Amino acid sequence: DVKVTQSSRYLVKRTGEKVFLECVQDMDHENMFWYRQDPGLGLRLIYFSYDVKMKEKGDIPEGYSVSREKKERFSLILESASTNQTSMYLCASRPGGIYEQYFGPGTRLTVT
Amino acid sequence: AQTVTQSQPEMSVQEAETVTLSCTYDTSESDYYLFWYKQPPSRQMILVIRQEAYKQQNATENRFSVNFQKAAKSFSLKISDSQLGDAAMYFCAYRRWGDMRFGAGTRLTVKP
User: Fold this and answer.
1) Is B41 an 8 Å CB contact of chain A?
2) What residues contact A51, with CB distance under 8 A and at least 6 apart?
3) What is the pLDDT of residues B22-40, one digit of tens each?
C-alpha cells in the first residue's frame, strides 16, 4: 500500500513564526503536491513538484514556499505565518502517468 | 482553466437507500480523467472510483457507480445500499496531464 505521511496532525503557531510542514511518501512517486482545504472551497493547490529540486506554483502560492531535496520528501514552508493561513493542509503524491493521487492524513494548522 | 462544480454542499440518505451526488466540470479537452474521493471524519482522503473520458462504459466499484455524460460534462456518483460508513465528504476531481482540480465537496450524512 502507498503510504503518505505528514509530520503533524495538529499544529498551533503564532503569527510571524516560520512554519515547516513535512510530507513523506514511500512509493518512489515522481509527483508530490501540497493542498489547502477550507470549508466551501474544496482543495486548492499551493505548490507541486514533479521531480527533485523542481517546483511549480499552484493556484495560491502567495505566502508559501516549498522544498524537495529528496524524492520522497516534500516540505511546505510558511515564511511568516498569518492568521489567514489557518487551515487544513493536505499532501499528496502520484506516480508518473495517468494515475490517481494518494493523500496524507492532513495537518490542521492554527495560527494565533 | 478547468473548473469542477459540486452544487450540493450537503446531502443525506437513509441507511440502505440510494443517493446520487452531482458533479459538473468545464474543459475543452477530450481526453481526461475524473475521480470521486471520499474523506471520512478521520480526514484521510481515499479514492472511491475513477473514470477515463475515452471510455463510454460507466465505472463501477461494488456499491459505487458513476453516470458519466461527456457531452453534458457531468459526472455523478451513485451510492447504492448506503451504509453508516459512507458518511463523509465527497470530492469530485478532474485531471488531464497536470494537477488535479477538485470541487468544493458534498457532505453526505447517513441516517440509521
Assistant:
1) no
2) A30, A68, A71
3) 999 999 888 899 999 999 9
